[in-house]
Design a protein that fits this description.
The strands form three sheets. The chain has a five-stranded mixed sheet with strand order 5-4-6-9-10, covered by helices on one side. Strands 1-2-3 form a three-stranded antiparallel sheet. Helices cover 27% and strands 30% of the residues. It is globular, with a radius of gyration of 15 Å. It has one domain (25-129): Severin (3-Layer(aba) Sandwich). It is α+β, with helices and mostly antiparallel strands. The chain is built from three helices and ten strands; from the N terminus they run βββαββαββββαβ. Residues 11-137 form the ADF-H domain. This is ADF-H domain-containing protein. It comes from Jimgerdemannia flammicorona. One of its GO terms (biological process) is negative regulation of Arp2/3 complex-mediated actin nucleation.
Protein backbone atom coordinates (compact mmCIF):
# COMPACT_ATOMS: atom_id res chain seq x y z
CA UNK A 1 0.00 0.00 0.00
CA UNK A 2 1.33 3.43 -0.93
CA UNK A 3 0.38 6.76 0.51
CA UNK A 4 1.20 10.22 -0.72
CA UNK A 5 3.44 12.37 1.40
CA UNK A 6 2.30 15.98 1.18
CA UNK A 7 1.00 17.33 -2.11
CA UNK A 8 3.95 16.07 -4.08
CA UNK A 9 4.14 12.63 -5.69
CA UNK A 10 6.47 10.96 -3.21
CA UNK A 11 4.93 7.56 -2.57
CA UNK A 12 5.88 5.71 0.59
CA UNK A 13 5.84 1.91 0.75
CA UNK A 14 8.10 -0.93 1.80
CA UNK A 15 8.96 -2.58 -1.49
CA UNK A 16 10.53 -5.98 -2.09
CA UNK A 17 13.84 -4.29 -2.89
CA UNK A 18 13.86 -2.61 0.53
CA UNK A 19 13.24 0.76 -1.08
CA UNK A 20 10.66 2.77 0.87
CA UNK A 21 10.02 5.64 -1.49
CA UNK A 22 9.12 6.20 -5.12
CA UNK A 23 9.92 9.59 -6.64
CA UNK A 24 8.20 10.94 -9.73
CA UNK A 25 10.82 11.15 -12.55
CA UNK A 26 9.60 14.68 -13.34
CA UNK A 27 10.64 15.76 -9.85
CA UNK A 28 14.09 14.25 -10.31
CA UNK A 29 14.41 16.12 -13.62
CA UNK A 30 13.45 19.41 -11.93
CA UNK A 31 15.99 18.73 -9.21
CA UNK A 32 18.66 18.09 -11.86
CA UNK A 33 17.80 21.42 -13.51
CA UNK A 34 18.06 23.12 -10.12
CA UNK A 35 21.44 21.51 -9.38
CA UNK A 36 22.99 22.65 -12.65
CA UNK A 37 21.38 26.09 -12.92
CA UNK A 38 23.91 28.90 -13.18
CA UNK A 39 23.71 31.10 -10.11
CA UNK A 40 25.36 34.48 -9.78
CA UNK A 41 24.38 35.50 -6.25
CA UNK A 42 22.40 34.63 -3.15
CA UNK A 43 20.71 31.45 -2.01
CA UNK A 44 18.34 29.29 -4.00
CA UNK A 45 16.11 26.51 -2.69
CA UNK A 46 14.06 23.64 -4.06
CA UNK A 47 11.28 22.44 -1.74
CA UNK A 48 10.24 18.92 -2.74
CA UNK A 49 6.72 18.77 -1.36
CA UNK A 50 5.80 22.14 -2.84
CA UNK A 51 7.63 21.33 -6.08
CA UNK A 52 8.80 24.95 -5.94
CA UNK A 53 12.10 26.62 -6.69
CA UNK A 54 13.05 29.86 -4.96
CA UNK A 55 15.83 32.05 -6.32
CA UNK A 56 17.83 34.65 -4.38
CA UNK A 57 15.93 33.84 -1.17
CA UNK A 58 17.11 34.62 2.33
CA UNK A 59 17.01 31.97 5.02
CA UNK A 60 14.39 34.01 6.87
CA UNK A 61 12.17 34.21 3.78
CA UNK A 62 12.55 30.47 3.23
CA UNK A 63 11.43 29.78 6.80
CA UNK A 64 8.39 31.99 6.16
CA UNK A 65 7.25 29.90 3.18
CA UNK A 66 7.62 26.58 5.03
CA UNK A 67 4.56 25.23 6.86
CA UNK A 68 4.52 25.37 10.65
CA UNK A 69 3.06 21.88 11.10
CA UNK A 70 4.56 19.66 8.41
CA UNK A 71 8.10 18.44 7.65
CA UNK A 72 9.78 19.33 4.36
CA UNK A 73 12.79 18.22 2.35
CA UNK A 74 14.80 21.05 0.82
CA UNK A 75 17.85 21.26 -1.40
CA UNK A 76 19.56 24.57 -0.73
CA UNK A 77 22.22 26.19 -2.89
CA UNK A 78 23.93 28.85 -0.83
CA UNK A 79 26.48 31.47 -1.75
CA UNK A 80 29.86 30.78 -0.18
CA UNK A 81 32.52 33.51 -0.29
CA UNK A 82 36.09 32.16 -0.33
CA UNK A 83 39.12 33.99 1.08
CA UNK A 84 40.65 34.32 -2.37
CA UNK A 85 37.63 36.26 -3.67
CA UNK A 86 35.88 33.38 -5.44
CA UNK A 87 32.24 32.52 -4.85
CA UNK A 88 30.81 29.01 -5.02
CA UNK A 89 27.31 27.62 -4.56
CA UNK A 90 27.48 24.29 -2.71
CA UNK A 91 24.34 22.23 -2.15
CA UNK A 92 22.97 21.01 1.16
CA UNK A 93 20.05 18.66 1.73
CA UNK A 94 17.87 19.88 4.59
CA UNK A 95 15.32 17.90 6.53
CA UNK A 96 13.03 20.49 8.15
CA UNK A 97 10.75 19.26 10.95
CA UNK A 98 8.95 21.84 13.13
CA UNK A 99 8.24 21.04 16.80
CA UNK A 100 4.51 20.90 16.06
CA UNK A 101 4.77 17.84 13.78
CA UNK A 102 3.04 14.68 15.01
CA UNK A 103 5.51 11.93 15.87
CA UNK A 104 4.06 9.55 13.24
CA UNK A 105 4.63 12.11 10.48
CA UNK A 106 8.12 12.86 11.76
CA UNK A 107 9.01 9.14 11.71
CA UNK A 108 7.60 8.70 8.19
CA UNK A 109 9.63 11.61 6.84
CA UNK A 110 12.77 10.59 8.77
CA UNK A 111 12.55 7.09 7.29
CA UNK A 112 12.54 8.44 3.74
CA UNK A 113 15.25 11.10 4.28
CA UNK A 114 18.29 8.93 3.49
CA UNK A 115 16.80 7.51 0.31
CA UNK A 116 15.69 10.92 -0.94
CA UNK A 117 19.09 12.41 -0.12
CA UNK A 118 20.82 9.72 -2.17
CA UNK A 119 18.44 10.29 -5.10
CA UNK A 120 19.08 14.04 -4.87
CA UNK A 121 22.84 13.24 -4.95
CA UNK A 122 23.68 15.77 -2.24
CA UNK A 123 26.25 14.66 0.31
CA UNK A 124 26.04 17.55 2.80
CA UNK A 125 23.02 17.12 5.10
CA UNK A 126 21.48 19.28 7.78
CA UNK A 127 18.53 18.60 10.03
CA UNK A 128 16.44 21.29 11.61
CA UNK A 129 13.97 20.55 14.36
CA UNK A 130 11.97 23.47 15.61
CA UNK A 131 10.87 26.65 13.96
CA UNK A 132 14.10 28.37 12.99
CA UNK A 133 17.40 27.85 11.21
CA UNK A 134 19.71 27.82 14.24
CA UNK A 135 22.34 25.18 13.65
CA UNK A 136 22.10 25.27 9.86
CA UNK A 137 24.83 27.85 9.38
Amino acid sequence: MCSKLGRFPLNIAIMASGQICDIDPKVLEKLKQFRFAKKSKGNAAYVFEEDEMYDDITMEDLVDVLPENSPRYIVLSYELHHHDGRNSFPLVFIYWSPNTVKSEMHMLYAGVKTYLQSQADVSKVSRSFGSDWHGLD
